[in-house]
Each structure stands twice: as structure tokens, then as C-alpha cells.
Amino acid sequence: DQQVKQNSPSLSVQEGRISILNCDYTNSMFDYFLWYKKYPAEGPTFLISISSIKDKNEDGRFTVFLNKSAKHLSLHIVPSQPGDSAVYFCAASASYNQGGKLIFGQGTELSVKP
Amino acid sequence: DTAVSQTPKYLVTQMGNDKSIKCEQNLGHDTMYWYKQDSKKFLKIMFSYNNKELIINETVPNRFSPKSPDKAHLNLHINSLELGDSAVYFCASSPGQGAGGYTFGSGTRLTVV
């Protein structure tokens, strides 16, 4: 029972264009969402987050959009750069959960071609 | 000066053996975690500790025993290793018990043969 799903295992984008990574969730109790970036043989690193009281959060080239009614969030990267090539994980958390538990999607591998 | 370091990075061992993975964080965080990334690439929480106290035990077989001697260390001991234990194990820490501020280690790839 996967509560967080990333249905696209991979995405290929040309340098300079927009990358859009999608994530769906099923648990309406989730109130905090995060995106992590992972390079091979490294641990995930935090990229950007959004609380359920917002529908958009922006940090430089990265913007996360949250559509609570659709239980959907997306990460936009614009412009995409070759260094953005990595696996991107969506994660969700519910504040009633003790211990800071994150529920992760299975990741989308982004390839940005020069 | 690695923030969350785990050792070893790679571990190959035979079925039935007992092995340990060590994790240390120098961030002064109160909460530490173990996550498992299985063959389907999902990262799933196994345990979390806050100030040496077990907070989350996510129905992990009792062959897995975490040990937190102090809040900077969270080690994972696995008894009687099985083929299905092959995975990448990630240690992480965060300042409190909320979902923000996680820092992950670089992972330990465990292969059971």
C-alpha cells in the first residue's frame, strides 16, 4: 500500500527547458511534503518543501506546487541544467506522526541533456 | 567533517551471518533514523530514535536490533542475515521529531549471498 507514488520512473529534458516531476499521495492526513535529490552512491539531500497550508513554494530555479484536492504535487525546475541530473524523491509526512517519519515515493530519474 | 557518516559503505556477507552497520552524526541533532531502500527503490523507515529513546519501530523483524549508545550514534545490528535483507540502508538525523531538516548518510549497500 504505497501512500506516495511517483508514476514516472524517468524523465529526459533538454538543457534550458523546464523539468516537471510529479507525485501523488493517498493519505489526506499528510500535511508536509518534501523533495529530495539523490546522486548515485550518495544519500538523498533536501531540495525544497511545502506545507499543506500553501499551494506553492519557490526557491531559485525550483518551485513546488501542491494541489490538495487532487492529492498531487509537482516539482518544476527551470531552467534545467545538466547538474540537475539525479533521482528525485517525493516524501510526505503527517504531523500526528511521532518521530518525524517520512513516506517516500520510488523516485524519478531526471536526465538533463546538454 | 561529514555530517552523517555510516560504515561500511559496502558489505557482502553470507546468509546466516550477523553484521553491524554504524552511524554517527556530528550535527548535534536529537533524532536519528534508519531507512531501507529495497530493490523497488522505495525508501522505507525502519527505526527512529530521539535522544537514545526508540520512537518508531516499523514492524521490522526482530533480527534487526538498533542500538543508540548516545544521541550522536545509531548502530544497526542484523542477526541471521537472509537474502531478502539485501538492500541499501540509509542512516539519517534531524534536529527534532518533525519531518524537516533531515540529513542522510551516503548509504550502506548490503549484499547477502
SSE blueprint and pairings:
The complex is a heterodimer of chains A (114) and B (113).
Chain A: E1 4-5, E2 10-14, E3 19-25, E4 32-38, E5 45-51, E6 56-59, E7 62-67, E8 72-77, E9 86-93, E10 103-104, E11 108-113
Parallel strand pairs in A: 2-11
Antiparallel strand pairs in A: 1-3, 3-8, 4-5, 4-9, 6-7, 7-8, 9-10, 9-11
Chain B: E1 4-7, E2 10-13, E3 19-25, E4 31-37, E5 43-50, E6 53-57, E7 64-70, E8 73-78, E9 87-94, E10 103-104, E11 108-112
Parallel strand pairs in B: 2-11
Antiparallel strand pairs in B: 1-3, 3-8, 4-5, 4-9, 5-6, 7-8, 9-10, 9-11
Structure characteristics:
heterodimer; A: 114 residues; mainly beta; 5-stranded antiparallel beta sheet; 11 strands; 0% helix; 53% strand; B: 113 residues; 7-stranded mixed beta sheet; 4-stranded antiparallel beta sheet
Descriptive notes:
The complex is a heterodimer of chains A (114) and B (113). Chain A has 114 residues and is mainly beta. Chain A has strands at residues 4-5, 10-14, 19-25, 32-38, 45-51, 56-59, 62-67, 72-77, 86-93, 103-104, 108-113. In chain A, 37% of the residues are buried. Chain B has 113 residues and is an all-beta fold. Chain B has no helices and eleven strands. In chain B, strands 2, 4, 5, 6, 9, 10 and 11 form a seven-stranded mixed β-sheet that branches. A four-stranded antiparallel β-sheet of chain B has the order 1-3-8-7, with no helix packed on it. In chain B, strand 5 (43-50) and strand 6 form a beta hairpin. Chain B is globular and about 35 Å long. At the A-B interface, strand 4, strand 5 and strand 9 of A face strand 4, strand 5, strand 9 and strand 10 of B.
